[in-house]
Amino acid sequence: MNQDAKEVQERIYPPMVEGHHDYASVTDKISDITLKKRTPFGWFIGFGIAFLTAQLLLITVTILFANGVGIWGNNQPIGWAFPIINFVWWIGIGHAGTLISAILLLLNQKWRTSINRFAEAMTLFAVACAGMFPVLHTGRPWLAFWMLPYPNTMGMWQNFRSPLMWDVFAVSTYATVSLLFWFVGLIPDIATLRDRAKNKYFKFAYGILAMGWRGSARHWHRYELAYLLLAGLSTPLVLSVHSIVSFDFSVSQLPGWHATIFPPYFVAGAIFAGFAMVLILCIPLRVWYNMKDLITDTHLIYMGKIMLATGLIVCYGYAMEGFFSWYSATDFEVFMMHNRMFSGPYWWSYWLLILCNGVSIQFLWFKRFRESAFWLFIISIVVSIGMWLERFVIIVTSLHRDFLPSSWGMYAPTMFDWSLYIGTIGFFFALIFLFVRMLPVISIFEVRTLLPEAKVEPHGHKHEHGGSGPVGD
Amino acid sequence: MAEFDSATEIVVAAEKVRDAGFTKTDAYSPFPIHEMDEALGIKRTILPYLVFCGGVCGLLLGLGLQYYTHVIEYPIIVGGRPHFSLPAFVPPAYELTILLASFTAVIGMLLLNGLPRPYHPVFNVPRFNLASREKFFLVIEEADPKFDYTATKTFMENLNPQEVFDVEE
């Protein structure tokens, strides 16, 4: 009977740290990735490829600055095209990081602990890539600071009624708060690295970043509360950011954009794409660094389930888009949907999207696929492509056939559209490689709390209040 | 300063130290221990109130900025909306609320903790390096009114620690 109860307990709450670990061994295991003298050869290969790919970004930006946005395929009527597709794609990827670090913390999901650190790093780097696109898209990026409200000699001010202006605030706040959240989470771990580093210069650098953290009980008390408050603040923030990004579309009058389903549908899509990226990053990471005891199969299964759930919400969004256009009984809406799905020149992109985002995730219903890292990896890549296609479909198919047939057009990306996009992917992975080498990829102090011995056993002393500490979990 | 091996041991010891009437005490651990707040008698921090104030400031700043821009400095009609079109002003004000509240949370936490502080006497104990790895340390400061070197040292040795150290200033 007791054995059965234990089994049920294990099935509901599987252990999040496998193998025989104690405080010292988890600390050493995670910090050794950073502190090891020799950089693994594979790291150089990976970083080298990513870094070379990132050069495409530099080259393209140089050519772009010299020649202007004419080197892109953007035209009238498809003025948004690749820059905005890529912006929305990248910023969506970032959302899973904040979901894991903030929302799952508030929901007391212990399994977030070993994946939140690099998911947050992923958020930061994805937002960095996303931020470049609208700035470059302005055409004169050196004047991008005109988007900020400051008293200027031109005597002009921003129009705060525009969703594009909301975007400036949403994205910059999101980037800043994500950075703060990430850094606060890192402080105790950087202190661990400071105490363990042998090299004088590293010790100094980590010492500066740790700011003299010494693990005092009074500090932990405020620290935990600050962390919890940041999680509470990031939760509405992450939901608002992609909602505001969706306002860029839905506040306009264009058929295919003007829909009330957009905010929730975009947020779900963002989390969907983000979890796909987390899986793409963590499946190789745990193999290369032999981390299967910390990022367990259970973690992958949970992420697969979240991907399935958010993917289904996204599919509901696709269905509703179709329903809305029919139910609106507006000729333009009906035409837009028919054109997008069947009669238009971009019909293939819509069905490819349904294949990538709608059909591929159905495999996740089956245990066989959910429990296989290989299949999860493949499905994640397919989903990433699908989410990119989603933005392509929304932007290009809606813009290329608007109200007046005289203003219809076609869009084809140029070489520079692709090189800029691929360049940011290289930039993103180069940053990820640097991060893995220089900072702890898994939150060490939080993993320590997952160990069974971290629980204070009940002892003779009477507690006045009982229950958990004043901070809560 | 006394060194302990486990979270339970240090919490038990901290309760004894509190019951013995020491107040200038501190505990160092490689991860947060919730029971420690009560064991050491740590008062709840004022941080949440500061963060709330930070958020309110952000909200007022956001609304004020937009009011100033659209009503006072540069009144212009866009899409037939009133100068002060509140619904459209919600997103920027909302974002600024979160931004300022988050900054208050982080900077407030660091300042209340007295960080950054590169030097602290506890770092003079060589084994203190392990506080960020696996060991737990309990400190009674000299500034404590009940502090008496020999008596306190004997008291600490009776708490069942691994070892007791002197912390040099």
What does this structure look like?
The complex is a heterodimer of chains A (473) and B (169). With 473 residues, chain A is mainly alpha-helical. Chain A has helices at residues 2-12, 23-35, 41-67, 81-106, 116-137, 163-196, 200-210, 217-250, 262-288, 297-327, 331-343, 347-359, 367-370, 373-400, 415-438, 444-450. Chain A starts with a helix and ends in a 23-residue tail after the last helix. By secondary structure, chain B is α+β, with helices and mostly antiparallel strands. Chain B has two domains: 2-44 and 120-164, no CATH class; 47-112, no CATH class. Chain B has a four-stranded antiparallel beta sheet, covered by helices on one side. In chain B, α1 runs parallel beside α2 (34-40) and α3 packs antiparallel against α4. The mean pLDDT of chain B is 83.
Write the layout of secondary structure elements.
The complex is a heterodimer of chains A (473) and B (169).
Chain A: H1 2-12, H2 23-35, H3 41-67, H4 81-106, H5 116-137, H6 163-196, H7 200-210, H8 217-250, H9 262-288, H10 297-327, H11 331-343, H12 347-359, H13 367-370, H14 373-400, H15 415-438, H16 444-450
Chain B: E1 2-4, H1 7-19, E2 25-28, H2 34-40, H3 47-73, H4 86-112, E3 136-140, H5 149-157, E4 163-164
Antiparallel strand pairs in B: 1-3, 1-4, 2-3
Helix pairs in contact in B: 1-2, 3-4
Give the biggest sheet of chain B.
Answer: 4 strands, antiparallel
Order of helices and strands of chain B: EHEHHHEHE
- Beginning-to-end CA distance, first to last residue of chain A: 31 Å
Which two chains share the most extensive interface?
A: A-B, 77 and 73 residues
Task: Give average pLDDT of chain A, whole number.
Answer: 85
Order of strands in the sheet with the most strands of chain B? 2-3-1-4
Overall tally of structural domains of chain B: 2
Task: Please count the helical segments of chain A.
Answer: 16
The count of DSSP E runs of length 2 or more, i.e. the number of strands of chain A, is 0
Low-pLDDT segments of chain B: none
Compressed to H and E, one letter per element, the order of chain A equals: HHHHHHHHHHHHHHHH
In oligomeric terms, what are we looking at? heterodimer
Mean pLDDT of chain B: 83
Count the beta strands of chain B: 4
Largest sheet of chain A: none
Secondary-structure-based class of chain A equals mainly alpha
Strand content of chain A: under 5%
- Strand percentage of chain B, roughly? 5-15%
Structural class of chain B: alpha+beta
Helix content of chain A: 55-70%
